[in-house]
Structures are given as C-alpha cells and as structure tokens.
Write a structure and sequence with these properties.
The complex is a heterotrimer. By secondary structure, chain A is an alpha/beta fold. Chain A folds into 3 domains: 2-135 and 278-348, 3-Layer(bba) Sandwich (FAD/NAD(P)-binding domain), CATH 3.50.50.60; 138-275, 3-Layer(bba) Sandwich (FAD/NAD(P)-binding domain), CATH 3.50.50.60; 386-454, Arc Repressor Mutant, subunit A, CATH 1.10.10.1100. Chain A has 19 helices and 24 strands. In chain A, a hairpin with a 6-residue loop joins strand 14 and strand 15 (254-259). Chain A is globular. Chain B is α+β, with helices and mostly antiparallel strands. Chain B has 3 domains: 7-51 and 160-227 and 314-367, FAD/NAD(P)-binding domain (3-Layer(bba) Sandwich), CATH 3.50.50; 95-152, no CATH class; 229-309, D-Amino Acid Oxidase, Chain A, domain 2 (2-Layer Sandwich), CATH 3.30.9.10. The longest helix of chain B is centred in the first third of the chain and has 25 residues, at 60-84. Chain C is mainly beta. Chain C has a single domain (11-91), classed as Roll (Ubiquitin-like (UB roll)), CATH 3.10.20.440. Chain C has 1 helix and 8 strands; from the N terminus they run E-E-E-H-E-E-E-E-E. The longest helix of chain C has 7 residues, at 30-36. Chains in contact: A-B, A-C, B-C. Chains A and B meet through helix 15, strand 24, helix 18 and helix 19 of A and helix 5, strand 13, helix 7 and strand 16 of B. Strand 24 of chain A pairs antiparallel with strand 16 of chain B.
Chain lengths: 486, 372, 102
C-alpha cells in the first residue's frame, strides 16, 4: 500500500477508486489490487478503519477487554490492506463525481474530484466503489442541540481514538445494539454512566419474536448475550421511555423523560443519544443514484443489482452505505463489489468471478441471519422520528423547527425541496445529512403518503466543502471559458 | 376548494405566483396548478438580481420594462410584508458589472452606450469607473479588476423568501393552489377552457400559461407560440460569512443570510443539469481574481439550473387571437420583473387585454427576421 | 464533560483555547481535545447566536466548527491537534479577509 500525501503524487488514472477506508473499503482494496487492478482508496480520516474500527492502529485503549474482540478483529483487515498494492490517500476528500457518458463535457471515464492538502485535482477512473458507511439516525428531541449532548457513537470515537470518556454525570438514551455496546465499553473503561433511558418500544418485542429463531442461529446471539450480561449490576436502566427532553440554557443540565403517563427527570452533565444507524447516502444521492425507501430500516438505501452496482453505470456501493448489515457483512460486500468490478474491467472472466463470489455470498447470507430480528426489535418509535413538540429543532444548521415545517407543509410545500426553499432546512453545511430523514418522515406523516412518494433533498457536489480557490485551480476548457466570459 | 375559477394560472413559479397574486388583488378567483417537489424550477435556482443596466440591447422597450419593474419593486416588497409578514430583504444600493480586462471594459461600455442609443430607450443613470474608482466603493477588489459599470437602479433580493412570500400572499388572498397537478392538455370548453391531467380536470373561464419550459408544449394548444428553450447556468454557493459585500455584482453577490453566490454561465445543453468542473473552475477563478478574500471561503454547494430562454432572450406576453382569454407569460428574469408582473401585467390580464405598449413582447416578432 | 483515562496521558501536545493554555494527546482531533479539556461548546450559530458543541465527532454534523490559527469554520473533528495551535470559539459567521493568508 502506497500512502499518498500530496495531490501531485496521485496518478492521473486509476482502474478503481474506493471512497472510504472502513471494512468494506479495506477488503475491496485488498481483493481488487490482488487481481491486478490499479486501486486508489480515498478517505477523509487520518488512519484506516472507518468508524467501526476507528483508531485501530493508534488507539491508547490497548487492553482488549475494553473495546472487545469484535473491534480487534478489524486488525486483520487493516494488515491485509496495508500489505496490498493499492494507493491510499488519507486526509483526502472526494468532492465531485461526473459519471461517464456521451454528452458534451463528459468522457469515457468517470471524473472524480479529489482534494488533498489544500489542492484539488480531477482523476480519471474506470470504476468507483462508494463505501461511506453509516451515520447515526437523527434523534430530534427538544434540546438536542445543546452543548453536552452528543451521539453515543461520538463517545465511542472519543474512547477509541483518544482514550477520553464521559466525566461528571452521563446519561445514555435511545435504543439499539450499539447503545448497549457503548455502555459496556465505557463501563469497561471505568466511566460512570448514571442511567440508560431505553426508548425501545415495548410492542417491538412481540413483532421481533417471529424472527427470533433466525436470531438464535446467528452470530449476533453470542455478542448480544454478552452485552446483556455485562449490563447487569450497572447503571440504572429505565425501559419503555416514550418521550425525552434535554434541558439547559447554554449546556445540557438535565434530561427529562416520560414513560407513558409517568414522568422522570435527572440532572446530568452529558447526554448521549442513539437510535440506530442509517446508510450515509450523501454521496450516492449527489451522484444521482436511485434510492429506495426501506420500510423496515426506515431509511434510504441505494438501489443495487447482484454485483452491488447502483443505477449509475460504473458506481457501486458496499458496506453499511448500501444498507445496515454490520462490519463483517461490510467486508464481504467489499469483496463482492471488487469481484464485480474486476470482471467489468476485464481482469477476471465472468466464470472466475462467479466461482470466487460463491463463498462470499454464503458468508453474506450467514452474517445476514438475525438482522431482521434486530431491525424489528430496535425500530425507533415514531415520535422520535417525527417530533411532536413544535419547538424541536429539525434542521440543526439553519435552526428550523418542527412547528415551522408543519406550517409550511400545511401551506402547500409538499416535499423536502420546496421546504428547503421556503425554510432553508437542508441548506446548511451538513447539506441535510442530519435532517433529511426527519423531514421526509414528517412530510409523509402530515400528508398521509409514504416516504417513498415524498422523496428527499436533491444533493449536489461538493460532497464535502472545498475552498473557492481549490475549485479555481481545476482544469478549464475553452468551451467553459466561452460559457462564462460573454 | 376552488372548482370553477375565473382564471387558472399554469405554473406556480416566480412568474405564475406573481401574476396570480396580482390577479387576486384585483378580486379575481384564481387557481394555480403546479408540478411536484422535484420539478425543474427556475424559481428555486436563480441569482436573485433586480438588474437593469444590461437589459434591452435589441429591444429598448425591454429596458423600459425592466427599469419600471425595478422602480416598482419597493412597492411589491411593502405589499408582501403587509400581506404575509415576510421581509424579502430588498436591497437596491446599485450594482456593479466588474471587468477583469480592458477588453471586457470596452465591450461592456460599448454595449451600454448602444443600449441607451436605441430609439425610445430610457436614459437611466450609470457610471463607468476605473480600478481606483471601483476600489473606493469596493475596497476588497483584486488587482485584476480593470474597472466596472455601476448603475444605481440595480439591486438584489432574497429570492427564496420572495418565492415563499408570493406563495403565502396567494394563500392569504384566497388563491387556490394545487401542487402535483401537471397539465397534460388544455382545450376550449364552453367559452372557457378545460385543463386536464392524470390528477383530473379543471374548467376555467380564462387561463394564463406561466409554466416556464412547459410553455413550449402548452402554448400551441391555445393558439399561442412560446418557443422557449433551456439555457443552463451553474452557480457556486459558499458557507455563511460575515457581511462584506452590500452591492450585488452581476456575477457575485452576498445574500442577506451571509452566503456568497458566484456565477454566471450560459450553455445550450438541452435539459442536462449536471455540475461540470471546468465551468465551475472558470467562475471560481474569476471570483477569486475579483475578490481575493474569497479564495479561502468554503463552498458548500454548487448547482445548475435551466433558464427559460426565448429565441431573442426577451419576454413573451401575449393573448391568444384564436382562443381569447388564454394568455402566455414567460421570461428569464422572474425576479427583476416580479413587480411588473404583479402590479402591471396582472391587472392588464384581469382587464382582458394587453396594452399596445406591450405589443413588442408578442411572439409575432419571432417570425420576422430582425432588421439589420 | 469528558476526561482522559490514565492509559491515554502520554505524548502530550500543548495548544491554546481562546488564549488559555491546554494539553491534549498526540492523535486527538481538535474537537476531542476541546472536550477532554472540559470545553463542550465551541461556537455560536450564525442564525441565532445559540451555543453549540461537537455532536457526532465523525465529520457529518458540522457542529464542531472552530477557528484554528486564525482561519474560521474548520471542522475540529477532522483536524489533528498540533503543538502551538491556536483554537478559538467560532462566534457566528466566519469573517473573511481578516484572516491570515492560507
């Protein structure tokens, strides 16, 4: 693996560009470069691992009992990645992608815009694998924008990357296996968690029970039992929470909750929120890939064929960015995508591709068992996806509230793009990453239609901000000059 | 729900909503039929300029029309604030066309002189400034700025808030608004018109076509001619920064929210709306040469949209001769002309005839080869 | 409020927060360095002046915007803290033009 630190060291062309450096990316890079493809891995973080294996090469938490064996398993993938023949550009941003085509201004190859150390360059690539992973589902409750309110994932990052843990009085609230995992890891590290407020709807147990058999046969069972056991004798756990509010002026001071008719309140210095993770569709959306609404996972998922190719030729997606399935599935799907790309690019015959893919598909099926149980059990309650209190901020960047959105919908703004124009929601620096699901579900609920019919914000490049100066340094053409200087 | 409106306006963009608002103020019962959330909407994607200084070369009446609208804009802004409480942040401090070479200066000065030399063209004030003169008003300009043309009639507005205000104003005046109703057919029916689509149908005594690029298809159905085509423009938008630029330039402006917008480009690529780096680069490069402090600003979004362009670039306003009661209204300056549309054009439509003064905007001109 | 575990206190990096001296660990992002130094709020919003602090720590939420060595609107969670770095609260919208050239 060749580490690229300067824009000038990037090759002008690659066979396969992989966006992200988590398990899917690392597995894909190793597979693809072993098959002879010229591979470039582009990732914004300084070290490989993505989020799930964040900091795995640099963490101070070397006592393996704290982060757990599932985390440390990631080292094998990292070692294989480091040993492979790919180019790796850490601290680099992919900011634009123009698919290949015959229209004027397009070429036979995909144009990928990459920014590294303050310099932007277009690269010609034949195939792109987008492996952006997941991000936390938004958790819009009154007060969620107060300093001192973070995601459970953030606390995990602070622990993994820097050995920093909550001090003072910390409360974790929400639902999902990651919630328990984070609580267990923090306790193992010696942090005090005052309480866990569990918002898993009681009714979910019944719905999930139909799939319990598959869960019992799955790899999740061992992990899950261990987590449940670990959490005994630990922080106070309050189940069946139906409403939450973070209180405070310039900082969170307390969390208040409801369990049906009963109320509770606890002072805290830190509130960690989590209600599952969802695919990070910012890049696939901006490229123009088609997405479908997954009614079980309650999120957008890029539409893909059996080789994980999206609706845009040459663009495929692997890992949690294509649908939440966990780290082991991510690695296998990275391998599958790499095999598909290798055949497309002529490095493998289709027969050979299919032969190599067979065990990968079996592994994917094995890792997929038990997911449905988890998806149904931890499906977040509607009131935490469609906030009721009108003062709840929905778009954090532009400070647009649930009440403002409801008003605008009532007055004829029928979808997220009209709402964006009327209220500016989705126009801030995060470009809708933290509000798009809430807005889509709010509009669907209010209009009595499905999220699928409502759609989502139209995303555009740059995928992450780049400076005006960087854009100004990209190559220009005579036609472009004529289009501007008139 | 409005079942038999006096007038149905097809298209709820800046043109349609301004006209609908103006009609409703005259007491008409108006219905607006609009498309869905993902429609091509020039109304959501424009540079928000109220611009006079370069309008009308080739049609002096267009210069007068733009000037008149610019002068009526404060009345529109006040009306919208009264009716809806929304402040559209109208700013008319004058605007600059900045030039990055002597060649560009000469071209622009010549065009402005020729514009005002046309018979019947309004004589609006403007100043030609060299680098130093420009720097006195805009201290942050870069060395490469050769000079500028300043016109006190130019300005800008928060066009997204304008769009919202027009929709709220329509609602306040009882205009029926039906989204997700794209019109497939318009037919004469019992002295009026029947408009239909997959969503059903509406019958209306009169109809106004303000459907942007959709006008090309709809106009012939009622004996009108609106040969508009898409003209692609790309725009760069930065993060919010502290205010530093009060005046709009024709290619750079800072919004009242703080973001800086940079343009402007023109390409004939059909309905393609991809953002393309070479064009973005040229615009970004010129912006940095104009205001070097923009070099380090973070771009949060680039987008492209389609102007609604007639063959000569001028509006088409016309009542159908074969189907009286059917009107078309189309232009590519829906922000500048919003005041004219709401306060002048709409009342004419309500009264049932467009005046002689607007005859120059008839589509008939497009059949006649232009005089040399 | 975050604190540093004993296994993570080697390899210190000295930087300043709004002029006050602070110590971080090499490899910390600026955002985590702030949190570990007891600073939970790093900016005020341009829209309303509300106090905000890091939320996701993975580059998605843009809440951790801070001024670093005079340049505003930097995502603190994506930048490694360095010796001598000057980190300041981002108050409202970033100011262009007053910053040192990049």
């Amino acid at each position: 693996m060749r580490r690229i630190r300067r824009s000038a060291d990037l090759a002008r062309r690659y066979d396969l560009a992989i966006l992200g450096a988590g398990p899917a990316s690392m597995a894909a890079a190793a597979e693809a470069s072993a098959l002879g493809l010229d591979v470039l891995v582009v990732d914004e973080n300084a070290a490989p691992g993505g989020q799930i294996y964040r900091g795995i090469t640099t963490t101070p938490m070397t006592n393996r009992a704290v982060l757990g064996e599932a985390y440390w398993q990631g080292l094998d993938l990292v070692r294989a990645f480091e040993a492979c023949g790919a180019d790796y550009a850490p601290g680099a941003k992919a900011f634009s992608l123009l698919p290949a085509g015959e229209e004027p201004g397009r070429s036979m190859e995909i144009e990928l815009g990459v920014s590294l150390a303050g310099e932007a360059r277009p690269l010609a690539v034949r195939d792109v694998l987008v492996a952006p992973g997941a991000l936390e589902r938004p958790f819009p409750i009154p007060g969620w924008t107060l300093p001192g309110v973070l995601t459970a994932g953030a606390a995990q990052i602070a622990l993994k990357a820097s050995g920093a843990v909550p001090g003072g009085r910390a409360v974790i609230a929400g639902s999902g296996p990651l919630l328990l995992l984070v609580a267990a890891q923090l306790r193992a590290a010696g942090a005090e968690i005052a309480a866990i407020l569990d918002t898993t709807p009681r009714a979910n147990w019944r719905k999930a029970a139909a799939h319990a058999a598959a869960f019992l046969r799955s790899p999740y069972l061992a992990k899950g039992l261990k987590l449940l056991l670990d959490s005994r004798g630990g922080p106070r756990v309050i189940r069946g929470v139906t409403a939450l509010r973070a209180e405070g002026e310039d900082h969170v001071r307390a969390v208040a909750w409801q369990r049906g008719a009963r109320e509770g309140r606890m002072e805290c210095d830190l509130l960690l929120l989590h209600q599952g993770v969802v695919p990070n569709t910012a890049v696939t959306n901006a490229i123009g890939c088609a997405h479908d609404w997954d009614p079980v996972q309650l999120c957008w998922v890029p539409r893909r064929d059996e080789w994980l190719c999206t609706s845009v030729p040459g663009i495929s997606v692997a890992g949690d960015g294509g649908g939440i399935a966990g780290a082991e599935s991510a690695a296998e799907s990275g391998r599958l995508a790499a095999l598909g790309a290798a055949a497309r690019l002529g490095a493998l015959t289709e027969a050979e591709r299919d032969r190599r893919a067979a065990p990968v598909r079996m592994a994917l099926e094995r890792h997929g068992r038990g997911r449905r149980f988890l998806d149904l059990l931890y499906r977040p309650a509607r009131q935490f996806r469609v906030p009721e209190a009108p003062e709840t901020i929905v778009c954090r960047c532009e400070e647009v509230t649930a009440g403002q959105i409801r008003d605008a919908v009532a007055k004829g703004a029928i979808g997220p793009n009209q709402l964006k124009v009327f209220l500016r929601c989705g126009m801030g620096p995060c470009q809708g990453r933290l509000c798009n699901l809430t807005v889509t579900e709010m509009v669907a609920a209010q209009r009595g239609v499905t999220p699928s019919e409502v759609g989502t914000y139209r995303a555009r490049p740059p995928f992450k901000p780049v400076t005006v100066g960087e854009l100004a340094s990209l190559p220009q053409t005579n036609a472009a000059v004529k289009a501007v200087v008139r | 729900m409005l079942t038999e409106p006096d007038i149905t306006v097809v298209g709820g963009g800046l043109v349609g909503s301004a006209i609908a608002f103006g009609l409703a103020r005259r007491g008409a019962r108006v219905l607006v039929l609009d498309e869905g959330d993902r429609a091509l909407r020039a109304s959501r994607a424009n540079f928000a300029l109220i611009w006079v200084q370069s309008k009308g070369l080739g049609m002096p009446q267009y210069s007068a029309w733009s000037k008149g609208s610019s002068e009526a804009w404060s009345e529109l802004a006040a009306l919208l604030r009264e009716t809806t409480g929304v402040d559209v942040a109208l700013q008319q401090p004058g605007g600059f066309a900045l030039c990055l070479s002597e060649g560009e200066m000469e071209k622009r000065i010549s065009a402005t002189r020729r514009l005002q030399a046309q018979p019947g063209a309004p004589q609006f004030p403007y100043e030609v400034l060299d680098h130093e003169g420009t720097r006195r008003v805009l201290p942050q300009i870069g060395r490469d700025v050769a000079g500028s043309i300043y016109c006190p009639l130019d300005g800008h507005v928060n066009s997204l808030r304008l769009f919202r205000a027009l929709h709220l104003a329509m609602d306040a005046l009882g205009v029926g608004y039906r989204p997700e109703c794209p019109v497939d057919r318009i037919e004469p029916h019992e002295g009026g018109f029947r408009l239909s689509g997959a969503w059903g149908e509406v019958r209306s005594a009169r109809v106004v076509l303000s459907a942007g690029l959709g006008n090309a298809r709809l106009a012939p159905m009622v004996g009108l001619h609106a040969p508009v085509r898409p003209s692609k423009g790309q725009v760069i938008v930065t993060e919010k920064v502290a205010p530093f630029l009060r005046h709009p330039m024709n290619t750079i402006r800072q919004t009242d929210e703080g973001g800086v917008m940079m343009g402007d480009s023109q390409e004939d690529l059909g309905f393609d709306t991809a953002v393309t780096n070479p064009v973005i680069s040229v615009m970004a490069d010129r912006a940095v040469r104009t205001f070097p402090l923009l070099r380090d600003a973070n771009v949060v979004r680039t987008w492209s949209a389609l102007r609604v362009m007639s063959p000569d670039g001028f509006p088409i306003y016309e009542q159908s001769a074969s189907h009286p009661g059917a009107f078309v209204a189309t232009c590519h300056s829906g922000v500048t002309l919003a005041a004219a549309h709401a306060l002048t054009l709409a009342p004419h439509i309500h009264d049932g005839a467009l005046p002689e003064a607007l005859a120059c905007f008839d589509s008939g001109r497009l059949h006649v080869p232009k005089a040399a | 409020m975050f604190q540093r575990l004993p296994e993570a206190t080697q390899d210190p990096v000295c930087f300043t927060i709004d002029g006050r001296g602070a110590v971080a660990r090499r490899g910390d992002s600026v955002a985590v360095a702030l949190l570990a130094a007891g600073v939970d709020a790093c900016r005020t919003t341009p829209a309303s002046g509300a106090a905000r602090g890091p939320y996701c720590l993975m580059g998605v939420c843009f809440e951790c915007l801070v001024v670093i060595d005079g340049v505003g609107n930097r995502q603190g969670c994506l930048i490694a803290v360095e010796d001598g770095m000057r980190v300041e609260t981002q108050r409202g919208a970033r100011r262009l033009g007053g910053e040192r050239p990049a």
